[in-house]
Amino acid sequence: MRWHTHDPFDLPSRGEMARRLHSEWLTWALGADDRFPRIPRQAVRDGGYESLLATPRGRRVCERWWRRALAVVDRLTPERLR
User: Measured between alpha carbons, how far is residue 13 from residues 5, 22, 24, 26, 32 in Å?
Assistant: First the structure.
């Protein structure tokens, strides 16, 4: 017995829904006036994080940065995109 009336193949997959929501969020975030934390783009091999991650203090700095960055994203993201 089928509990729903829709063909399951007509429904978007969870992956498709996640990609659609992420695309909508990125479009919103790139156009938002609020400033999100920037992620440095220099690779470790080019000296990006290697020295920072080599110490316990440096790793704590990175963990704190990510914690704060994600909190800002949560705070700024509209409820409909969460």
Answer: 17, 14, 17, 20, 28
| Separation between Cα atoms, residue 15 and residue 21, nearest integer Å | 10
Dihedral sign (CA 43, 46, 51, 52) = negative
The residue extents of the domains of the chain are: 41-82
Distance from the first to the final alpha carbon of the chain? 34
- CA dist 26 and 30 (Å) reads 6
Helix or strand or coil: residue 58? helix
Summarised one tens digit per residue, pLDDT across range 28-55 is: 888 877 676 666 667 667 766 777 788 9
